[in-house]
Description:
eight-stranded antiparallel beta sheet; mainly beta; five-stranded mixed beta sheet
Amino acid sequence: VFRADDGQISSFATVSITVTMPEVSVTATDAAASETGPDGGEWAITRVGSTGLALNVIFSLGGTATETDDYSIDTTSPVTIPAGQTNVTITLTTVDDSVPGEGSETVDLIITPDAAYSIGTGTGTVTIADNDFVAPAVSNYGTTALSDTSASVSGWVSSGGVVEAWICWGSTDGGAASTGDWDNVVAMGPVNVGTEFSTNITGLSTNSTYWYRCYVTNTSGTAWSPSAGTFSGTAVGGGGPASDTELPISDVFCHNEKGNFGGIPGDMIAGTGMNGNPDNYSGSWPTNEPSLWTATDSGYKSEWQSAALVNSATSANSKIGWAIFDVGASYTLKDFYLWNERENSGRITATFNVYVAETPAVSPPHGPTDNTAIDYDFAGGGWTKINGPVLTGSWRGDQVVSLGSVDARYVAVEILTNGGDANKVGLAEVGIVATISAGPALGNEAPTDITNTGAVLNAALDASGTNYDVYVYYGASDGGSNAGAWASSDYVGSWTNVSTGLSYTASLAGGQTYYYTFQGSNSSGQIWATPSWQFNTLPAGAVTTNHYVPHSWLASQNPAWTNDYEAAVTNDHDSDGFTTAQEYWSGTDPQDGSSYLRIENVGTISSNVNLVWVHSQADAGLPPIVIQWRSSMLTGAWSYAGQNTPSNGTNSWDALMQQGGYYRLAVTNMP
């Protein structure tokens, strides 16, 4: 290296220099701020490394709070850590706004990356507590039956920001004093205002009513649903199951109905002809249930044998005989049972067709009672062919023809061939089976309008095609389908050919378990709605521990007071100088500052003094208002002068005027 100043050439060593970047971190040294005070927050930005030079640190702000509206800070970005110092503080000042329901909000101070430093902890958070508290509010939001033993129950948060919510439920109304008074309490966790919350409840008893209320809390207090709601699983029950029933046959029509040795048509009818002709059989007769008939039942010796045949050469459909059975009304017909003629194999019904009709176009005729026969054309209208030609197979066998559950009144046999006899054909017995409901579709439904004095008991009735008288049975124990086992019963009404809901208002005691059911009856018999329904009435006459103010009256004044009945009665909600309890016993409005017990006017009527005052919320159970008198305004004992039963509106009292007297109104037996 040549130096210009002295012309000498010198050599120099190479020096390596390492520069260490400072590391910067942020910490919330006062992380808890509040609108109350206001109380601010603070961060410290700290560097690790050389402090020989000043260091500018760039940052930004984030979080849920809004700068200016919710807070301010004492510096802007970048902030400088002076030379010789390891840290610098940034102060947050909160704004005490009046925005309700914000809840706690956060402010994040975030270090921005830069070439002048590295980042250790890059974010510090200060939380600002809100002081504009909003009281929580919640309501029951409905129920849905999911099955006979399960249901969905829901609530709705209408105020209070984020709340903690619970659903309380049980067989009785546990009230709004404590969740511990309920059989079951389901925690729902945090719920935002304007949000529905719900839970599925299982393990319910069939046909039972349950109660529920919703409960919420936040930093400003607690709240219950204004009233308890009811729910249940899907209703179970109704009319008895349909059953197969042998129908009585009201009339029989045949191609020949001669009543001599050949027999008469009535001999075929199960239940009448089954008992046969005593001339032919004198033993015990078999069952009238055709499905139980057997080939050895000797009772079938009593049969119908025609005295003549129809000319197959000229008859409709080449028949030799026919028989039509009338069951008297339309039914859902299931099966047709035929037992063949027993005396002579030549006279059996060998092949045949079966028809049914609701209303034949040509009314069935009765055949002659001599040795002739008449034809009947089943193609004449109204008839439907079910089966045929059918071969009976054996003169000692039976035949069951399925009618396919068709609605009809008439069943007919069109006989095509017999066993070879030239003059006669017959049958031993017939039976017609229908599928019939055991009675009206009658099922219990959930009760409504349950109070501490009664409830509306409900059911559903389907009396299509018939008439039923309906009765209700209820009591503190379940009497089932035994009318005599129920404590109370009443006639509900009569219904004909309708499907309808039934309701009955029952007067009941409070705080009791009740059961009820409905019964339908007519000339054919009875049907009970089963199983019975179970529910509990509201507690009887609940009052506050202090001052004995009815809960029901408090709820009618302001549903929010049901959250804490005891506090409600000791507060002066309208700032008129009288507590809610005093206003209840005085018969005045606890939410109207101008309504309190006082003499509005003093006058005279002839020689009588007349006092006038006003009640606006006089409960039916209030004691009389007492009028007292004394001679001195300042001293002396008050004497009884009279009394009035309070009633809403203007009240007055008059009596002979006391000389120089003073009067006042008093509630003397307020607890």
